[in-house]
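INPUT
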Amino acid sequence: MIARLLGGVALVLPALLPLPALADTLVDNINGMTVDRDGDVTHFTAMVIGDDGRIAKILKRKDKPPKDVDYHEDGKGRTVIPGLIDSHVHLMGIGLAALSLDLSDTHSLAEAQQKIAAYAARYPDRPWIIGRGWNQEQWALGRFPTAAELDAAVPDRPVFLERVDGHAGWANSKALKEAGITAATPDPTGGRIERIAGSKQPAGVLVDGAMALVSDDIPPPRPEDRDLALYKAQQELLSHGVTAVADMGTSIDDWMTFRRAGDTGRLTVRIMSYASSISDMILIGGTGPTPWLYDDRLRLNGVKLYLDGALGSRGAWLKAPYSDAPGETGLQLLNGTQLRNLMSRAAMDHFQVAVHAIGDGANAEVLDAIEEMSETYKGDRRWRIEHAQIVDPADIARFGRYGTIASMQPVHETSDRVMAEARLGPDRLTGAYAWRSIHDAGAPVAFGSDAPVEAPDPFAGIAAAMTRTDADGQPFGGWHPEETVSREQALAAYTAGGAYAGFAEGRFGELKEGEQADFLMIDRDPMLSSAQDIRSTTVLQTWIGGRKVYDARKDISDPPPKNDKREEKAGR
Amino acid sequence: MIARLLGGVALVLPALLPLPALADTLVDNINGMTVDRDGDVTHFTAMVIGDDGRIAKILKRKDKPPKDVDYHEDGKGRTVIPGLIDSHVHLMGIGLAALSLDLSDTHSLAEAQQKIAAYAARYPDRPWIIGRGWNQEQWALGRFPTAAELDAAVPDRPVFLERVDGHAGWANSKALKEAGITAATPDPTGGRIERIAGSKQPAGVLVDGAMALVSDDIPPPRPEDRDLALYKAQQELLSHGVTAVADMGTSIDDWMTFRRAGDTGRLTVRIMSYASSISDMILIGGTGPTPWLYDDRLRLNGVKLYLDGALGSRGAWLKAPYSDAPGETGLQLLNGTQLRNLMSRAAMDHFQVAVHAIGDGANAEVLDAIEEMSETYKGDRRWRIEHAQIVDPADIARFGRYGTIASMQPVHETSDRVMAEARLGPDRLTGAYAWRSIHDAGAPVAFGSDAPVEAPDPFAGIAAAMTRTDADGQPFGGWHPEETVSREQALAAYTAGGAYAGFAEGRFGELKEGEQADFLMIDRDPMLSSAQDIRSTTVLQTWIGGRKVYDARKDISDPPPKNDKREEKAGR
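OUTPUT
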């Protein structure tokens, strides 16, 4: 096995490596720092990386460097921090979004048409052209665009493009035809088919519930699209300094994509996976979590469950009615028995359980369930609550019990604060995005982005966590600034905290002897910079397992998976 | 990666190994032989195995052995042949059959009840008790057994046991209740619910079409059952000297079971996998066959398609009607367009295609399709026809074209010859199980067992191939003996031929330098023994990748996967 793997690695990785594959590496002349889960920072000036990709030695100013190393990287005094962990992403979603057409920066219909046509020409093999982001207001069009206007860009393949708000879709004639939408098609419940004025003919735009008439016909991504999407997602993460993620809702298709990448040496970013359902969890893991695969790059930890919806669409399950929708308290997607049965099915085989809970009702219910489950499923379970956005102040102390992990996304607060105030009113904001209170209650905290909902940029997250202001510095002084956390705590929640939340402590997350050499060289010192400066951090280099996998100055990455598979995919 | 794997191997394998894991091994004092695809035999007296599990050197009588080896195995003059390849098995079927209760050796109802009760007590965790093989005639019962008689053995869990012929099932009261079968349940089409005399109450036995009323309620195997089944299947194969198989119809559940075994060091037998459907093929392989995984132990080669049924049930698609069912020509499960579309979908991404074809109509159709496809899909495709049982003599020459592989099962001939005569009549037997003619037509031939339909015993297959007689030597002189093959050809079809059929040549299948050290020590010389003697061969030792994985004198195998997963399956 060993020899074959060495062979495989030797074949695949050289393009990625400026250094010999297996040799001691000295990285010195650095302003190195690492932080533990408590937020305690340790500084160092150099490290030795063994031929196994792990840190062999951490050197401080007074330590003597080894004389005999095979590769030497001069840090030129730059700052080195641990690789960052994004504890809540939808990995394939990041990649598939990157592959689809983005019209959000177009300012006229003509510009959009040009961009659509160019995109279609660039991907002649795609059976459908999918995209998003258009906005007829931004185009100063004063009306919806038409199927005919889309046909002008792409006449020969179906095209379907979502509006910027996700509440309308623009189809060309081919797509309307594939969906069987004609003058005779009635508007579906909760939806509207825009019609050509003075006729019943569909005009091209489908609103809300009518979108599914077309979107249900869009074929699922092809395997080559999935492979390429994973490549794109990894590229994006590496450029942001993200070296490990928790993938929240891994389908069997996603998992097989991860394994294909692992089997062919193209899995770079570390993935802690949470299956999208109990059945996928069992299909993948069988009687328990998988081992760590591909040198700590992939593990099925457990399952992701959904207990409620989101705040914006009033799907978050609140204890009391929405301020802006009296009588509504959101959606409880699982009743108490269902939630406990699903948690129990996972826990009985030591799978880790991560439950999506946004409203205070949902959070209380998960905390109740964990409390009850903890009697049966003892030991180190690390129950996770994903988002934990709105928590009744009376429940915050309960986060500290049973080691319940709060997996939160700082940027959601700065993006959603105005909406949250409308939904909750002024009196229920005490437990909203309550990072400091939950941390102070003793809960292990892990930070993430929820990408592709938000950009997977941990530096934006750290800045938001420190200030509760957005990129424009709004609101001045921060929104409920009593819930900010220190820079050390924020960094810990993106490093050691994220590793702990995924049972990866000791493997990666901190720069210390025996751990994977996952680190970043960045252009400023996060311990000395202002929050707004931290937000602008440039990642100069990203290293994973002792190998440089991203360099801002040049493209050192693997080439994307080939679509041309004539010869190399033959029988052997 | 390397260090982790070494760590993993060191943790998992010692129990299996009488020798250091990584060191040169000398196996000498042997009557060694290997055969190439042409049937040419090479003899040797010793071999050196490198620390990678591959053959470093083959030594002949005059060669000097190396002085410095880490482990020495004295063959004591025994015969050594390559590990045998079974080119058509249902791997999980072998294991699941081994896990279910077998009543075929019971001679009274009381004995059966005792065996059922003991089995239920042995597997207290199984939610259902499943079994087969009962025969009320063998019990001299003169009637079907009853649900009450089964309740006497197992009252607390549902039980469902198939009759020896598969045409009836015996349920206990729990199973009848789960299935909702009551006095009010009508007999389904094509089936009969046995009733208690003088009443409408179900008696316990369900005939033919009524069996599904219960069997549809049986839950699929649990992951721990699948893991255990794979272990049992491997144990059985190793004891028969089978070191590699082609798995014909791998479901996604099967594949994940293989990977779990590979990931935890419990995959011993090499698997060349053919997905059970195009969609599973794409889900697993994505844009092409997987790489060889786990040091040549697992690869998704392609897909298995079914073109017709079987001869016994008159499902085989014949060119002319069945002799014993005038007007019937069997089942064509795919029309010509479907067959070509499915073959094309696989071939376009260089997946290998294996088509089940038993009747002469089906074989002609696959040969037609291959002929047409070969214009489009050039190169080394190795189209496989599985079974190729009944071939129109006019079509035999066509097997030689385009390298079409005939994957055949010698024991099917000896088991089925009387039935085949009835189905085909005397005039259509020329192309039946026509091993020699197909070989002489230039087709690469691979032999297998179709286990669990037949026992996975290659020595029985070699004997049948050489003689066309069964274990009792019937019929005297052999059935259509002109279709026997030489012992060398038979051995080649179980070794080098099987490797070639699965794109594994150069990796395993022959004992030569650079190939995996997969070999058997057996108690007789197949080049000198009679066919009936070969049939009685005892496998003394089975080695895979330079490691002894089976020894007839003692249990050196891995322990089975544990059901007790309290601590070791915890988070880390």
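end of record. Chain B touches chain A through 55 residues (CB under 8 Å).
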